[in-house]
Amino acid sequence: MKKFRIGLITGLAIFALFGGVIGTNLPGNQATAYAKTTKKIKKAKKPRWERPSENKPYPNLKVHKHVYLQVSLKKQRVYVMSKHHKVLYTMICSTGKKSTPTPKGTFHIQNRGKHFVGANYWTSFKGWGIYMFHSVVINSQGHYIKSEAKKLGHPASHGCIRMPIPDAHWINSHIPAKTKVIIK
């Protein structure tokens, strides 16, 4: 009986060893299917409000001097424009609702900051902090409000210009004071 058990265990071990090696090379095998599907898995994209509006670098302001910002209330976009009126970069935004509209006209970049109660990366263009470009809104704990962030591309603010986080950060850290802002 002892010899039978040893023989059975040895036979099963040999079968498992060769069956497993041969089995992994068979088409349709689970290991092969797993290997094929793992190659297809791509890194999930961040939500629209967590990534830059375009899949290209922001304009180099050392090369493109004298840019200005143009805001389209109709298209809900902010355009970084060259001095020759060429669009260098397009950013999605949310401007004011009908009840709290974004002011139309020509303004200039005033002051700026990293955080205020309501959003991050604010850059004022009218009223020294009353009307500004800023990130999508945050709650009192500093967390982005996803339901509000999903409104990008539609009027949703109290007059400010809401933007994806990287776009608001870029404007805040790269657009110089006194840069012209045209809103129409």
Summary keywords:
184 residues, alpha+beta, 4-stranded mixed beta sheet, 9 strands, 26% helix, 24% strand
Distance between the termini: 93 Å
Shape: globular
Order of H and E elements: HHEEEEEEEHEHE
pLDDT averaged residue by residue: 86
- Neighbour order of strands in the largest sheet: 3-2-1-9-4
Q: Give me the secondary-structure category.
A: alpha+beta
Radius of gyration, Cα only, in angstroms?
28 Å
Number of DSSP strands?
A: 9
Determine the fraction of residues in helical runs and give it as a percent range.
25-40%
Q: Major sheet: size, sense and barrel closure?
A: 5 strands, mixed
In percent, how much strand structure appears in the residues? 15-25%
User: Low-confidence parts lasting 5 or more residues at pLDDT below 50?
Assistant: 12-35
Number of helical stretches of at least 4 residues: 4
